[in-house]
Amino acid sequence: MVNSGFLRSSAPMRPPVRSMLVAGLGAFLAIMVLLYLQAASQLTWLMASFGASCLIVFALPDSPLAQPRNVIAGHVLSAATGIAMAHFVGVTPVSMALAVALAIVLMLWTRTPHPPAGANPIIVMVMGSSWSFLLFPVLLGALILVAVACVVHKMNRQSYPKYWW
């Protein structure tokens, strides 16, 4: 069978052990910071999609999807889309699907795609989140993730971010 380039004949190479450990450590530190802030303030600082953001920010720091503008704006735009849809239309299967679709279109239009943020409309609609959810945890949580990524990658002598905005 001829490989036309469409299908790979094998999986991509495994990253170096150091890179894997830095990614794991970065994710651990970022989530721990958010959990400690949550415990200390009694405010919500963590949402499920941040776990997926950690994979991109710490394991793939050179990716455009890992850059601060994508992480921060992607999360805020998509969560705002879900909250607006719930507020103005209500929560139905159609409105949830439409909110995800609109969030994707908005992230692409603003050049801020961040795949984990695609889950935010579902998260906020299922939780019945209010507009204040955009501040805690969405905006401030995304800022914390980026700040921890800057520190971890700096300590590892990696260049992150490639660009800010």
Task: State the secondary-structure class.
Answer: mainly alpha
- Number of discrete helical segments: 6
Overall 3D form = globular
**Series of secondary-structure elements, N-terminal to C-terminal:** HHHHHH
Helix content: 55-70%
Mean pLDDT metric: 95
Termini separation (Å)? 46 Å
Number of strands: 0
Main beta-sheet strand count, sense and barrel state: none
List the uncertain runs: none
What is the domain total for the residues?
1
**Proportion of residues in β-strands:** under 5%
Rounded to the nearest angstrom, the radius of gyration is 17 Å
Keywords: Membrane, Transmembrane, Transmembrane helix
Protein name: HPP family protein
Transmembrane segments: 20-37, 82-109, 129-152
InterPro entries: HPP, TM_HPP
